Amino acid sequence: MKQYAIVEATFAPKRTDDLQNDAAACIGQRYLWLASGIVESGEYAGEWRMDFYGQPLGTYDDRRFVWVPLSDLADVVEVE
After folding, report:
1. How confident is the model at residue 62 (pLDDT cuts 50, 70, 90)?
2. 13 and 68 in contact (C-beta within 8 Å)?
């Protein structure tokens, strides 16, 4: 993966005890994500930071994520 790649992927977090902003309701849903950079410290250091980018065409969900680590995404397909 390269920085600023846009991918479509299913939200499948490894942990659920630290989810915020009603994110639990988004588990199993597909969204678009932006690879914004590598996490520098903490539990996810060394992983890609994936910023919420939107919904696939024809879908809508008003929830928003700050970011998730790449390991919390499944069935990742690069779209741009």
Report:
1. low
2. yes
